[in-house]
Amino acid sequence: MASRFISALAGFAKFLPAASKPSQKPSLREKFAWTGLALLAFLVMASTPLYGIPSQISNQFNIQNLIFASRQGTLMQLGIGPIVTAGMIMQILVGSKILDVDLSDTQGRIDFTEAQKSFAVIFTFIEAAAYVGAGIFGSLTLPQEVLVFLQLVFATLLVILLDEMLQKGWGIGSGISLFILAGVAFQVVNAAFSFQPYNTGVKPVYAYGAIIAAIQAALNGHFLSSIIRYPAVAGSIPPPDLVGLVATIAFVLILAYMQGMKVEIPVVYQKAQGYKSKIPLQFLYVSNVPVLLAGILFSDYIFFTQIIWSRFDPNNNVWYLNFLGTYTRTASGIQPSGGIAWYLQNPGGLGATIEQPIRSLVFVALLIVLSVMFSYMWVEIAGLGPRDQAEQLSASGLQIAGFRSSVGIIEAVLRKPIYALTFLSALAAGLIAGVADLLGAYGTGIGLLLAVSITYQIYQILVQEQIEELYPGIARLLE
């Protein structure tokens, strides 16, 4: 039954537009060109406002904008949301064996990829309809709703094609990683250097960007006011400040250092006359997936309760819906103002953190707890558990130095370091992401986690590409 479901989705993908594989492997220069073209298309769409809506492009960013590389009020309103959501659901269904797919088989991998693409297209239509139907863009006429719906669908389908193009070998990495990195970089630059005025109702009016505002404040003799800044409307996200700048630099350095931390397991290769080596287990063993899943959960909760609020409780006077979340419309968009949703959105800066200590502590605690919970789930689903790793080592002819080659023994030896790294990496990632948010780090804590991880992955890809171009013989061995 499950395999028929995958086959049906894979069959549907044959009727969708698709990017073809290159007939021969592009050079590194050509890959840079195609990657730059995809990035340019994304940035243009992220700067193009949706035609037919009364609201303006927001200068503020939240978890949803970050994870899904989206920007409110533009063609990138959905961003990579449908791709990420479809991918996560498919990974969980396959990893938990609900869907029976053999990913070690070439055809199985092709069917899975095609099914995932079809699922992403289906989610595109669902999310576009949800945004329009929920009244996120204000009061629209029926023709306006149809027009906005079509814009969202076509723009997101183009993003799916761009991601497919890069993954099929035309570019470097994947579209998802590239667009997330671009979104985080845009947020960081915008937070530091935006000249757009940020009106707090008190003169003089300084720029939104922290560095520009600090220069303006210094020229007016009020430099200290730029160190910690407060929101124009109580409860909304405050503008970037210098504390956030220092936090951003500090956490990027910490995360870059953590990328190189690892635990080495000594192994012996019996087929090579007992050749000894070491297998590294990264300290960030589960990478940023658990904290990303926690962020997606926060984001989806806010998204759906926002829809419920806009339809059934716009005046915040239905008590049982107020428990789920209350919202207010501000110049920077719809913001949580109470209920559970209030605690799932970070305060956004040190000033707001000091003013709302309970909210801040609850936010960080929830982020850490959910990250740890998701980490154990992801280890089993993604095949990173001790049993899966032991089977892979045994199949490769490797065994732990000083122990017999039995799968059960290898599993017992690996259980302690793997589960310890699972807990510690999720705890560290959740804590760093949460504290970075409380200090107002640019791009948010989860964004910095993603950006550093993606940058490291791209660096590794570039090193491999350079080696393959310089030494073609190695490229043939890697195929």
TrEMBL record:
<keyword id="KW-0653">Protein transport</keyword>
<keyword id="KW-1133">Transmembrane helix</keyword>
<feature type="transmembrane region" description="Helical">
    <location>
        <begin position="242"/>
        <end position="260"/>
    </location>
</feature>
<feature type="transmembrane region" description="Helical">
    <location>
        <begin position="281"/>
        <end position="304"/>
    </location>
</feature>
<dbReference type="InterPro" id="IPR030659">
    <property type="entry name" value="SecY_CS"/>
</dbReference>
<keyword id="KW-0472">Membrane</keyword>
<keyword id="KW-0813">Transport</keyword>
<comment type="function">
    <text>The central subunit of the protein translocation channel SecYEG. Consists of two halves formed by TMs 1-5 and 6-10. These two domains form a lateral gate at the front which open onto the bilayer between TMs 2 and 7, and are clamped together by SecE at the back. The channel is closed by both a pore ring composed of hydrophobic SecY resides and a short helix (helix 2A) on the extracellular side of the membrane which forms a plug. The plug probably moves laterally to allow the channel to open. The ring and the pore may move independently.</text>
</comment>
<feature type="transmembrane region" description="Helical">
    <location>
        <begin position="32"/>
        <end position="53"/>
    </location>
</feature>
<dbReference type="InterPro" id="IPR023201">
    <property type="entry name" value="SecY_dom_sf"/>
</dbReference>
<protein>
    <recommendedName>
        <fullName>Protein translocase subunit SecY</fullName>
    </recommendedName>
</protein>
<dbReference type="GO" id="GO:0015031">
    <property type="term" value="P:protein transport"/>
</dbReference>
<feature type="transmembrane region" description="Helical">
    <location>
        <begin position="147"/>
        <end position="166"/>
    </location>
</feature>
<dbReference type="Pfam" id="PF00344">
    <property type="entry name" value="SecY"/>
</dbReference>
<feature type="domain" description="Translocon Sec61/SecY plug">
    <location>
        <begin position="40"/>
        <end position="73"/>
    </location>
</feature>
<feature type="transmembrane region" description="Helical">
    <location>
        <begin position="119"/>
        <end position="140"/>
    </location>
</feature>
<keyword id="KW-0812">Transmembrane</keyword>
<keyword id="KW-0811">Translocation</keyword>
<dbReference type="InterPro" id="IPR019561">
    <property type="entry name" value="Translocon_Sec61/SecY_plug_dom"/>
</dbReference>
<dbReference type="InterPro" id="IPR002208">
    <property type="entry name" value="SecY/SEC61-alpha"/>
</dbReference>
<feature type="transmembrane region" description="Helical">
    <location>
        <begin position="205"/>
        <end position="230"/>
    </location>
</feature>
<dbReference type="GO" id="GO:0012505">
    <property type="term" value="C:endomembrane system"/>
</dbReference>
<feature type="transmembrane region" description="Helical">
    <location>
        <begin position="172"/>
        <end position="193"/>
    </location>
</feature>
<dbReference type="Pfam" id="PF10559">
    <property type="entry name" value="Plug_translocon"/>
</dbReference>
<comment type="similarity">
    <text>Belongs to the SecY/SEC61-alpha family.</text>
</comment>
<feature type="transmembrane region" description="Helical">
    <location>
        <begin position="74"/>
        <end position="99"/>
    </location>
</feature>
<dbReference type="GO" id="GO:0016020">
    <property type="term" value="C:membrane"/>
</dbReference>
<feature type="transmembrane region" description="Helical">
    <location>
        <begin position="358"/>
        <end position="379"/>
    </location>
</feature>
